[in-house]
Amino acid sequence: MNIVILDGYSANPGDLSWKELEELGMLTVYDRTKSDETVARAADAEIVLTNKVILNSEVIAQLPRLKYIGVLATGYNVVDIKAAHERGIIVTNVPAYSTESVAQMVFAHLLTVTNRTEHYAIQNRDGRWSSNPDFCYWDFPHMELADKTFGVVGLGNIGLRVAQIAHAFGMKVKAVTSKVQSTLPVGIEKVSLEELLATADVLSLHCPLTDSTRHMINAATLQQMKPSAILINTGRGPLVDDQAVADALAKGAIAAYCADVVTEEPPRPDNPLLQQPNAFITPHIAWASMEARVRLLKVAIDNVRSFLNGQPQNVIS
Predict the structure, then answer these.
(1) Is 265 marked active-site?
(2) Is 284 a catalytic site residue?
(3) pTM of the predicted model as reported, rounded to 2 decimal places
(4) What strand order describes the sheet that includes 149-153?
(5) pLDDT tens digits for 21-56?
(6) Measuring CA to CA, how many Å separate 73 from each of 11, 101, 245, 297?
(7) CB 173, CB 187: distance < 8 Å
(8) Which one of the listed residues 206, 284, 293, 295 is annotated catalytic?
(9) Per-residue pLDDT reduced to its tens digit, 102-125
(10) Which among 265, 291, 295, 305 is annotated as catalytic?
(11) Active-site residue identified among 109, 236, 293, 295
(12) Which of 7, 21, 105, 141 is most exposed, with the fewest beta carbons within 10 Å of its own?
């Protein structure tokens, strides 16, 4: 069985092993693949693994030997599922491998805004505290999380874990979710998006990217938020309108924007968010802890093994 990984570097830059996958077939691993290289590299493959390399209907049509596509992620918008199914190609993903890592990043971002620990650590390496006339100093007002309202949009695996952590901080947790209130854990109140926008001190996005959620945070919805609100996006970049958020930050309509994702990745140098001092942007790394990547590879390889055994798992239907 000919197996090709089109962009293996992000998941495994060399600190993990593909050995178990090598035992399942003839393996070729490319660190990165440009769009115009995809067909040539996957031409003889029966199994293709991809993280962010796009396999659309045009590409799939040029891969006659292809039987299986494994997405090295939870989101699978990089694959044209309809085109794959029409060809009888099995498509799988890796669900819930990064829940703890992403939830942790949400609060790393939030605490960056409320406590600014890195800011002070950098200053004090340069002697700021040593030369201070008082025993302490601060450049920003600090904020306690307890009793503040934490809003969550989407209560999937990650959104629910984030809500639980917020509750542990003593925050009042409100959520926009399709789930029924009676099924929610104690401490989570189901509300409308309008109420969440108006009342949240912190708003964290964890919903899928669909036609209805694309740019759900835009100029109009930002106007409904508190000027003191902190907006967090570790879900999908296009859930927000980058320009609208940058404009809101510039005029003080919200206090801060924390994001691990942007609409175009890597971002263009002129992305307006990169110029805003109260925009805290990390390079799509919330998923990438060692522990999460170990789980990712294990499940991805198990997916291939299960397919070869005639019992595919984690199939996208």
Answers:
(1) yes
(2) yes
(3) 0.94
(4) 188-190, 172-176, 149-153, 202-205, 230-233, 256-259, 279-281
(5) 999 999 999 999 999 999 999 999 999 999 999 999
(6) 9, 14, 27, 10
(7) yes
(8) 284
(9) 999 999 999 999 999 999 999 999
(10) 265
(11) 236
(12) 141
